[in-house]
């Protein structure tokens, strides 16, 4: 009997705070698959229109073409022919993403998901924690603290907006370590 079943899919999650290189790492893995002539499908949520609507773009300006979708169900439909599926900014999808990733992996596909594991209050950011519990492979990336240079696993919002989702980059957020992170005022939500 073969030890490796070639029809077996899996889930990889790349998580961490903003600026930790999640998107760079996702692009790196997807490019390698494309070079190896695997069929690759790449998605991101429509809400993330910061740099581009038809590319995934990192803060270091690496980019790769992608399809913007509203729901995980669209990913399931559009990814049927793909062997490798990349999903960026996965924290912006609802929790139905978990079942979609499981179904795609069960169907023999390699599913690579990148997203924030915590929000700007340091609270777990669903559905990433659910995906971490189910994934075969997990990479937890760190940024560099903008205050002291230590490894940074937190995202500091440097404006006073208290909504959970405010799409932005270094104009609104910076990477901070445990020591330098300052909790936002507890207010409405
Ligand atoms: P993420 O997707 O995790 O937000 P990206 O892959 O888009 O991260 O960007 C990573 C890049 O961000 C780094 O290679 C670097 O050029 C840049 N960067 C900006 N601020 C920082 C920081 N504080 N620490 C590390 N990298 C940073
Ligand atoms: Mg990113
Ligand atoms: Zn620090």
Walk me through this protein's architecture.
There is one protein chain. This protein is α/β, with parallel strands linked by helices and 189 residues long. The mean pLDDT is 94. Helix 3 (96-106) links the parallel strand 6 (84-87) and strand 7. Helix 2 packs parallel to helix 3. The chain has one domain (10-142): P-loop containing nucleotide triphosphate hydrolases (Rossmann fold), CATH 3.40.50.300. The chain has a six-stranded parallel beta sheet, with helices on both faces. It is built from four helices and twelve strands; from the N terminus they run βαββββαβαβαβββββ. It has helices spanning 22-35, 72-78, 96-106, 128-134, and strands spanning 10-16, 40-45, 55-57, 63-65, 67-69, 84-87, 110-116, 137-140, 143-144, 151-152, 154-157, 173-176. The chain binds adenosine-5'-diphosphate (ADP), magnesium ion (MG) and zinc ion (ZN). Zinc ion (ZN) binds next to loops.
Helix content: 10-25%
The CATH homologous superfamily name equals P-loop containing nucleotide triphosphate hydrolases
Strand neighbour order, sheet with most strands: 5-2-6-7-1-8
Q: Characterize the overall form.
A: globular
Cofactors, ions, other ligands: adenosine-5'-diphosphate, magnesium ion, zinc ion
């Amino acid at each position: 009997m073969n030890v490796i079943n070639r029809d077996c899919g899996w889930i990889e999650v790349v998580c961490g705070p903003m600026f930790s290189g999640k998107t760079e790492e996702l692009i790196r893995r997807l490019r390698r698959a494309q070079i190896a002539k695997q069929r690759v499908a790449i998605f991101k949520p429509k809400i993330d229109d910061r740099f581009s609507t038809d590319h995934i773009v990192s803060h270091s300006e690496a980019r790769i073409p992608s399809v913007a979708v509203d729901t995980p169900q669209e990913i399931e439909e559009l990814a049927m022919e793909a062997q490798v599926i990349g999903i960026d900014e996965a924290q912006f999808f609802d929790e139905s993403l978990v079942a979609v990733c499981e179904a795609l992996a069960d169907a023999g596909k390699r599913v690579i998901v990148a997203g924030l594991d915590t929000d700007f209050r340091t609270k777990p950011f669903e559905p990433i924690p659910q995906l971490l519990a189910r994934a075969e492979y997990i990479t937890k990336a760190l940024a560099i603290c903008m205050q002291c240079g230590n490894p940074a696993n937190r995202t500091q919002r440097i404006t006073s907006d208290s909504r959970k989702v405010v799409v932005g980059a270094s104009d609104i957020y910076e990477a901070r370590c445990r020591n330098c992170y300052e909790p936002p005022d507890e207010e409405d939500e």
